[in-house]
Amino acid sequence: MTTQKKKLAIMGSGNGSNFEAIARYFQGKDTGGKCVDITCLSNVENAYILTRAQNLGIKNKFLPFSENFDYFSKNEFDLVVLAGYMKILPDEVLSLNKFINIHPSLLPAFGGTIHSIKDAFLAGVKVSGVTIHWVTSDVDCGEIIAQYPVFITAGMHFDEFEEEIHAIEHKLYPIVIEKLLEDKVFDFQDLMKSECGSKCGDSHCGGCHS
Ligand code: GRF
Prior knowledge:
Blueprint: E1 6-12, H1 17-27, E2 36-42, H2 48-56, E3 59-62, H3 68-74, E4 79-82, H4 91-94, E5 99-103, H5 116-123, E6 127-134, E7 144-151, H6 158-181, H7 188-196
Parallel strand pairs: 1-2, 1-4, 2-3, 4-5
Antiparallel strand pairs: 5-6, 6-7
The structure holds 5-O-phosphono-beta-D-ribofuranosylamine (GRF).
């Protein structure tokens, strides 16, 4: 018996590195009838996220902001994922589906800005991180689904910190999306534990919880 393919839309306006991490994660999965049907959408016609989708053989579409309501009224998805989408979606669009977003800080700290990685670093905090949350029309204010910390150690360079934030984003977003698509309640710490194990040698792993 095959399970129906889950339909996932990923929306972005620029680079698309999170889109690519998600797409590669699902492309690399043993399908067994469970694979995910991904559509990449961008409100920016020449955005690199669309080029990445073309290169990966994934359906993609330039979707002007003004056409969102019409599009999501006619196209059903199990989940819509924002990944660097630089516009604020109004309630009338958000009411048409489930939307999630990723933000490169531990919300509610350093929300509402595209400079949150730099702002956190310059503020001198010792820990920042990544948040995945439900989208509401209040920017970066929706209920938190998952968070993961990144520590700013003594002498750490900004580039190193930024790189680590993005590495965590690319690892966290796909596994959270997979669990949401499976409609499973999950303890996020367990997810990260199963990803790394005790002998992973992963530089992002702060050690496993027992
Ligand atoms: C990411 O840092 C994400 O957290 C934020 O926008 C950035 C998008 O990067 N919302 P990319 O387009 O996925 O490379």
